[in-house]
Amino acid sequence: MINFQIHIPTRILFGVRALEELASTPHLPRGNSAMIVIGQSGAMIEQGYLARVQGCLAENRVKSLIFDKIRPNPETDEVDEAAALAREMGVDFVLGLGGGSTMDSAKAIALTAANGGRCWDYAPRGSGRGLTPAAGALPVVEVPTTAGTGSEADPWAVITKSGGPEKIGFGFDSTFPHLSVVDPELTVSSPPKLTALTGMDAFFHAVETFLSTKRQPLSDMLALEAVNLITRHLPAAVSDGQDMEARTALSWAATAGGLCLSLGRPLSQHSIEHAMSAHFPDIPHGAGLVMLSRAYFAWLGNKRPERFDDLAAAMGLDKAHDLPESDKPRAFLDRLADLVEASNLAGLRMSDYGIRPEHIPAMAETAFTTMGHLFETTPAAMTEKDVVEILEAAYA
User: What is the DSSP annotation of 351-383?
Assistant: First the structure.
């Protein structure tokens, strides 16, 4: 017996040159003033993407205000600053332009601007106050320039509390994007390593929701599609960033992964990674997931081997369903190792980001205190001791 709900109110404009539709689409939120949220690196300016978005909005009679202080693994301080500015200037909607950090920040800014207080007031766990917003968020428009996070298709914003090792994902119906414009051409500027890391982020969104106890038929279909597309096309995009067939496939896979996160829930792999990158903010989310993945899925496959053969088959393994039950996780792990190697990520090491064995117990504890709800959607009971052992295996 399965029970599920489907609620995805986001309109998605997808395709090469879809950005041009921003100039004429009748589906922008109402109003004539937008805050455009970009990262502090300046990449959106250097690539000309900011100017293009501003030009499209202007053609649609929308003036824009720029907030350019978002860092990778965004923190509450910059979200609160942007929200205060949005309230002061009376913007009508918020547009996130860039990767997952800016798109997630746009949602948190829109929520905080509309409701007041601080961003962390709405975080439901850790030291967050768990407040239910009295008003809906300002409308959000998302324009991704990477293919990974899937934030264009889900309501979630992952934010780190400034000054402390708490990184929590939260969202509400009102933080679903009103409109998302997914143009694979905008991902061509992503360098090879970023392409690989964001692609693996999307891969694990799909894998985790497929194995989750909160899965459903539609998320299963999307997850297997994303796993297949990423396995086939990520190495090609890493090798040749101009390969538009690969870029388009990866953009759709990332969006499909975001839809999976709207329809279901991921596993505790995300809880553990959020703890890692909360303690060590220089760790890109995709890198943390890759470094954890072999140890994590080896542990899970030993406990619950079912459905790993479906993943291996989606990754191209013939007769995966004929394998003995105990061999199914190994088949998936072997294909995963091949994908990581082909994407030039096999050299990632936790120690390169400053992690030492003595840090592991604190990260394990944080995983439970900040994102503990994802242990409930993991199909095998996991203790803090198990998480320590997984982190130790990943470190080794």
Answer: GGGT--GGGHHHHHHHHHHHHGGGGTTSSS---
Tokens coding 359: 């840090």
CATH label of the domain that carries residue 168 = 3.40.50.1970
Confidence of residue 2 (pLDDT cuts 50, 70, 90): confident
Instruction: Output b/e per residue, 309-324; b: 16+ Cβ within 10 A.
Output: bbbbbbbebeebeebe
Beta strands (DSSP E) in 164-257 are 167-170, 179-182
Strands 167-170 and 33-39, bridge-based pairing: unpaired
pLDDT digits (tens, 9 = 90+) for 9-45: 999 999 999 999 999 999 999 999 999 999 999 999 9
Instruction: Name the nearest CA neighbour of 101 among 133, 68, 127.
Output: 68
Q: Quick one: 127 and 196 in the same domain?
A: no
What CA–CA distances, in Å, run from 4 to 154, 232, 292, 306? 16, 30, 29, 21
